[in-house]
Amino acid sequence: MQWWCAAQGVAWTWSWRPYPGVWIFIGLLLLAYLRFGGGSAASSRQRTASFAGLIALWVALDWPIGALGSGYLASLHMVQFLLIALVAPPLLLMGIPAERYQRLATWRGFGLVRVLTVPLVALLLFNTVVVATHWPGLVDSLMSSQLGSFVLDVSWLLAGLILWWPVVSPVPDRPRFPLGVRMGYLIVCTVLMTLPYVFLTFAELPFYATYELAPPVGVLSARDDQRVAGLIMRLGGGTILWTAAGVLFWLWYRRENDPQPIRVDSRTQSR
Description:
The protein is mainly α. Helix content is 70%, strand content 0%.
């Protein structure tokens, strides 16, 4: 029995396989959220966001997407990346009440969080992780073991949380990073993610031995599967980031155009 999805080198079968490590990981995240992240203090909308983020992680890590993406299809490996790094993190962060964020800001170790989530640092760190974790040598070495596959998945999740923190989290307060600048931040991220898309989509030969030598699944060759992976990164990642930028634009527009509330002097009102 495998505890985490990793490359196996055997023919794919649609027979369900358990991955208890994935269940334990998701369960620990759920317990951490209920104990520290929100629990009864969270609104129904916040709890829904957090649970949606956990479900996105579960779908990405567990059978069948986790198993297929970890050793058979580069295209589903890219779907995993999008779910783990770009879909789950903002949902998890949106599920935390402002009160819990303020409490976190008083923690002694929050200084490291403050540094890592400086927008420029977060942007460069995330895209460095993206390039490194799609580099053929690193991917092939990590995907061959369960521990390596776990490290790869957790790296995506942590990098995604760092990327989305300046956009979603209210702490630390950054008055020079308003909604309009956050939109540009996400758009720049789509540009920086072009590099992996280019070498995946336009390479003449397959990059990853893991997928090139894997038992075939479906009708796509390893080269075509890699090309689909690049297109998924470009179109799927761009759609997620541009949609988030669109939501920020809508919030910015409402903030700028909503009429200011009329203040009534209580003494005048009493007359």
